[in-house]
Design brief:
The complex is a heterotetramer, with 1 copy of chain A, 1 copy of chain B and 2 copies of chain C.
Chain A lengths: L2 E5 L6 H12 L4 E4 L10 E4 L13 H4 L3 H10 L4 E4 L1 H8 L6 E3 L7 E9 L15 E8 L3 E3 L2 H9 L3 E5 L10 E5 L5 E4 L17 H11 L1
Parallel strand pairs in A: 1-2, 1-3, 3-4, 4-11
Antiparallel strand pairs in A: 5-8, 6-7, 6-9, 9-10, 10-11
Helix pairs in contact in A: 1-6
Chain B lengths: L2 H5 L6 H6 L4 H11 L5 H10 L2 H4 L4 H4 L9 E3 L6 E4 L4 E9 L1 H6 L1 H17 L4 E11 L7 H19 L3 E8 L8 E11 L14 E6 L9 H6 L6 H4 L8 H15 L4 E6 L4 H13 L2 E5 L12 H6 L5 E6 L4 H10 L3 E9 L3 E6 L2 E7 H4 L30 H9 L8 H4 L10 E3 L6 E4 L6 E7 L2 H6 L1 H18 L3 E10 L6 H21 L3 E7 L3 E2 L2 E2 L3 E10 L16 E6 L10 H7 L11 H16 L5 E4 L4 H10 L6 E4 L7 H6 L5 E6 L4 H10 L3 E8 L3 E4 L5 E2 H17 L2
Helix pairs in contact in B: 8-9, 8-12, 9-12, 12-15, 17-27, 20-21, 20-23
Chain C lengths: L1 E8 L6 H12 L5 E14 L4 H16 L5 E8 L1
Antiparallel strand pairs in C: 1-2, 1-3
The chains are: A alpha/beta, B alpha+beta, C alpha+beta.
The complex binds adenosine-5'-diphosphate and magnesium ion (MG).
Amino acid sequence: MKTAVIVFPGSNCDRDAAVALERATGKPAEMVWHGNAELPDADLVVLPGGFSYGDYLRSGAMSARSPVMEGVIAHAKSGRPLVGICNGFQVLTEAGLLPGVLMRNADLHFVCKTVGLQITNNETIFTNGYASGQTINVPVAHHDGNYFADDETLDRLEGEGRVAFRYTDNPNGSARDIAGILNDEGNVLGMMPHPERVVDEALGGTDGSALFASLVEALQ
Amino acid sequence: MSKLTQMDTAEITPEMVKEHGLSPEEYDVIVQRLNRAPNYTELGIFSVMWSEHCSYKSSRFHLAKLPTTGPQVIQGPGENAGIIDIGDGDAAVFKMESHNHPSYIEPYQGAATGVGGIMRDVFTMGARPVANMNALRFGEPDHPKTQHLVGGVVAGIGGYGNCMGVPTVGGETNFHAGYNGNILVNAMTVGLVRTDKIFLSAPSGVGNPVVYVGSKTGRDGIHGATMASAEFDDDSDEKRPTVQVGDPFTEKLLLEACLELMQEDAIDAIQDMGAAGLTSSSIEMADKGGLGITMNLDVVPQREQNMTAYEMMLSESQERMLMVLKPGREAEAKAIFDKWGLDFAVIGETTDTGRLILDHNGETVCDIPIRPLADDAPKYQRPWVPTPDAAVLSADQVPAPIDIGEALKKIIASPDIASRRWIYEQYDYTVMADTVQIPGGDAGVVRVHGTNKALAISTDVTPRYCQAGPLEGGRQAVAEVYRNITAVGAKPLAITDCLNFGNPERPEIMGQFVGCLEGIGEACRILDTPVISGNVSLYNETNGQAIPPTPAIGGVGLLKDASKMTTKHFKAEGDAILVIGGGVTGHLGQSIYLREMHGREEGAPPPVDLEMELKAGNFVRGLITEARVNAVHDISDGGLLVAVSEMALGTALGADITVDDANTPLHALAFGEDQARYVVTLAPGDVTSVTKAAEAAGLTVSATGTVCGSSLTINGCAPISIDELTELNEDWLPTFMGAE
Amino acid sequence: MKARIHITLKNGVLDPQGKAVQNALGSLGFDGVGDVRQGKYMEIELSETDPDKAEKTVELMCQKLLANTVIENYTIKIGD
Amino acid sequence: MKARIHITLKNGVLDPQGKAVQNALGSLGFDGVGDVRQGKYMEIELSETDPDKAEKTVELMCQKLLANTVIENYTIKIGD
Ligand SMILES: Nc1ncnc2c1ncn2[C@@H]1O[C@H](COP(=O)(O)OP(=O)(O)O)[C@@H](O)[C@H]1O
Ligand SMILES: [Mg+2]
C-alpha cells in the first residue's frame, strides 16, 4: 500500500503523519512538495496538520490553491481515500472537497488538549476499526477548529451518516459537536483532532491507530 | 535628502553620543581607536556593539566565574547556543533569552518575537528545535495591566511556537508587585543535532561570500532612544522606529531551508540576526574568524524605501540570517532558499583586513577595525554592596492557621500555586509526536526522535528567595531545576540562565547580581551542571523601582530509557508514601504560607545544602531507574502539603500522611519550604528496604503515609476533599483571565 | 492604482470574533452595544492604470483567493 | 446607529499576512501586484442615536480594545 503526505509551506505535522503511516503500513510514506503539479501514484493521500502559509488570510486558503491540489482533487474524484487532519481539514473545505468552514475557536484561544471523540459512524473505510458509539481520546491543537455550515448542510451531513466523529466535550464551538466529516462518496475525511499523535503507548495512548489500520484493511 | 541621511555626514555632538547610550569616556575611546571622529553610522554601530545587551560590559567579569566545562559539554558560552553530548552521536543545543521590555510595550509581538529569536539561536547551529519553555513574571493580579499582559504574552508565545510546530512543554509563571512596571518574558529552546553536523559562527576563509537570507529589512526596532530624539522631517511617520512584528511562517521556512542547506557541505559559518541585526551578526562572525568583512548595503533586501546605512545596520527586523558560504556554493544555496520562497542575496565577502567596510550608494559609509568593536568593548567592574543578611524567622514567629485545611485551600488557589492549564493549553505541546511528559509535571520530557531516550527540561527560580538572600537564592534556583529534572527520572546535564536584574549602576543591585551568580556557580559545580549558554537582562526598572532579582535557570537532563520516566500523579490506592531527602526544620521564612496567609514577605530564605541535594537526587533517580517508585514529586513552593496535594490533584486518589516531629508546629511541617526533599510513592512491601537504603545514604525519611480515599489528611487533622482542592487549583487562572 | 477591498461575512454566518468582541465591550462597561461583525479590509497596490481593468482583476482575485464566497461577501473600490 | 471601523497597521510595521497574500497572488498568475496590506473592518450596532456621542464612545472602544494602538491606526465612520 502506497501512501503520500503533502508538504505545504508551513506544514508541521507532515513528519508525524508519515511516522504514523509507516507504522501502519510498514512502508515509508512519500513526501510530496506542494509545488509539484503531479501527484505520485498513491493509494492514500494525507494532508497534514500545521500552519500552512501561517494560517494567513484564512487557514488553508492559500494551500487549497497550490499546484499539487489539482492532483489531490483528481485523486479524490477517482474514489481513492484522502484524509485531511487539522490544517489538512481546513484545506479540504477551502478546496471545496468538503462542505462548511472552520472558523476561529469560539473563545478565540488556541486550544491544545486531549478530547473525547465519539465514533458517530463506524461504517466507513476510516472508522471501521472502531466500535459504533465508542469514545476515543485524541489530542486537538488548533486555533480555527470551529466547524460551521448552514443548517441544511448540517442536516444532510447527519442524515447521510457523514459525521464521522463528534466531540464529547466541545472544545471550540463546532456546530453540533462535529469533529470530523466525510464527503458524499465517503472517500474523503476531514478531522480536526490528531490521530497521528496517538499511535504510540509512550505518548499516552494508541486510540488513533485503528484509523490507520482501518485504511490499511480497506486498501488491502 | 532626508535629515537622517544628512546626519551621516554631520558632526557628532555630545547630545548624539548621549542619545546613543555612550558615556563621554566611551566616546573618547572610540575616537582614539579610530584615530578620528566616527560618522553617524559608525557611532550607531559602536553604540549597539557596546550596549549592555551586546557587550555584557557590567556582567562579563562575574560571568567568567561560572563553571562552563565538563565532559558532557561540546560547546559552552560564546556561540549562539550551548551544546551537550547526549550519547550515540546526538547532542542537545539550548539557550534561554529575555524579551522583557518589548513584551511590556506590546505583549503579543514582544513575546512572539522573543520565541522566534531563541529558536533562531538554536537552529543556527544546525539543530532542529524540539522543545520550547517559557519563564514568565507578571505584576500582581490586581494591577490594571496584568490581565492584558498575561493574555497577550501567552497568545504571542503560542502564536509563534505553535506555528513553528515546536512543542512548548513547560515553564513557570509568577505574579508579584515587583514586576508591575517591568514584566519578564524569558524563552528557552532546546534542539537536537548530530555531533558531526554542528555549525558555528566563525568563518575560516578569506574571500568567501557573505550571504543574507530570510525576511527583508525594515525600520523595525531601531534604537528607540536615538530615533525618538532625532529630528523628523515631512515623512517622519515613515521613519519612526516600529515595533518588531513576528512572522512565524517565514521563520518556519527559514528553519527548513537552513536545515536543508546544512545537509550539504556549503556553509562556512552562520549567525542569526538578533538584537542589532546586521551589525552584531557581521561583526561577531568576522571577529570570531579573526577576519574582516565588506558589505554592499545597496543589495540588502529592503522592505521600505530610502533606508539609510544607519537604519539598515541597526534594524532589528526578524527572521533573518547571515551566512558565510564556501566559495562557489552560492547557486546551490540560492536554489534551496528560492524553493522555500525566501530572499537570498550575496551582500559581501570576508577579507583579511580585520575591518568592517560598508558601501552604500557608491560611497564608503563605514570603515572601522573590528577588534575594538567586539573584543575591546568596555568592561566594568561596577561597585557593589552585598545584600544584608535577613534574620532567620523561627516557626513560632509565624502564627498557625485556625484550620490547616482552610489554609491549604487558600494556598492551592493562590496566584503562584494555581494550575497553569489555562496557559499551557494555548501551546501546542504534542506536535512532533515525541512529548512523553506534557506540561503540568515537574519537567517537560521529549523523546529524541526515533530513539528510546529522552530529554527532560525545567526552568526555575524563586525570586523572593533571591531578594532576601541572593547567594541562597542562586543556589536554590539551580537546585530546584536539578530536583525537577531528577523527579522525572533524568540525570541533569547542564543549564542555561537568563539573569534578570535592575540597574547595575546601583551597588545594591550589583550586589544582588554578584550574590546570585556566586550561588549559581557553586551549585553548578557541586551538582555537575555547567552553564553552557545564557543571557543577561539588566536595567529592569521602572521609576527607580527594580524588579526582584530573577536569575531564571533552564536545565536539561537525559533519560536514557524513556519507558522508566515517572510522573507526579498518584497511581494506585494503597501505595505507600515516603518523604525522602534533607532534614526538616519547618522553615517558614519567605514561604508561600507566610505571604498568602499573613501578607508577610520576611525572613531568610531556606538554606540550601548542595551536597544533600546531590545525595537526595542520586538516591531518588536510582529508585526511578530501578523502577521501585510509582510517583515522584519534589517539594518546593508551599512545602510538603502542597506537594502531596499536587500529586493527588486530578486523580481520584487522596492520601493520609504523618509527620513525626513533636518539636515543630504542624503548620511549619506542612508548609515549611525546607529544601532537598522528594515525595515518592511505592509498593508498601518496599517501604522498609527503601527507608533503610535512604538512611544508609545519609538521607532522612521525614514523613510517611498511604495513598487512600479521596481526601487528604495530615497527622489526623480533618480530611480535605481532593475534588475541592482540584477545583480551587484549576479555577483561579481561568477566572482571573475570564473577563479578558 | 490602489484597490480597497472589504470582505465581510454573509448574513447568517457565525462570527465568533464579532461575538467575542461584543461580549468584551460589554464587560468593559460599554452599554448599548448590539451586533458586532468583523471582516477584513485589504489594500492592494496594482501596476494597472486602467480602473476598469483593475476592477476586473481584483474581482477575479477575490473569487480565486481573497474571499471564501461560501461564507463571505466582498466589495471593491478602485482609486488612489 | 451603526459604526464602521477600519483598523490598519501603521506605516512601516511588517505585515506578514499582506506579504503572504501578495506572494500567493503572484503564484496564482496575477501580474503587477505590489504591496498588499491587510487590516480589519468592523461594524458595530449601537443603541446610541446621537452621532457625536456614538463617535466618542467608539473612539474609546478602539483605544481600549479594538485596536492595538502600538502598531495599528483606526478610523471611525458613524452612520447607517
Ligand atoms: N508559562 C508556562 N508555560 C508552560 N507551562 C507552564 C508555565 N508556567 C508553568 N507551567 C507548568 O506548570 C507546572 C507548574 O509549574 P511550577 O509550579 O513552576 O512547577 P515546579 O514547582 O515543579 O517548578 C509545570 O509543569 C510547568 O511546566
Ligand atoms: Mg517541581
